[in-house]
Amino acid sequence: NLDLITSGPIPPNPSELLGSDNMRNLLNILEEHYDYIFLDTPPINVVSDSLVVCGCGHTAGVLLIARQGQTTYDDLQRAVNSLKMAKSNLLGVVITDMAQQKGLYKYKSYRYKYYQYGNG
Fold first, then answer.
1. How many other C-beta atoms can be found within 10 angstroms of the C-beta atom of residue 57?
2. Verdict on whether the full-model pTM lies above 0.85
3. Are 58 and 65 in contact (CB under 8 A)?
4. Which class for 32: exposed (0-12), middle (13-18), buried (19 or more C-beta within 10 A)?
5. Which of 3, 57, 89, 98 has its CB 3.0 to 4.6 Å from that of 61, i.e. a possible disulfide?
């Protein structure tokens, strides 16, 4: 129950194509056939492709992916600020490559941290 569309060769003008009417038309067609559509884009702080997709008006929100030990707090803050400027809805952050700590989670005893982006 998963369909995948790959990007194919990288064009000389990816941001222009992502913000085009053809991209909007493609998303409109896909919305008629799928409950959820995930767009995997390059890192937000590296190229503008992600922000172009966010600004097309067809995204419900953005899920940031960060790698533990590589993505800094400043990187995340820059990404969040960029999303705010693009008036995008930040759904959350996924941290990958987490170091597993033995004994951190025990039966009926959970430890966790919750961070929320917002005012303040």
1. 8
2. no
3. no
4. exposed
5. 89
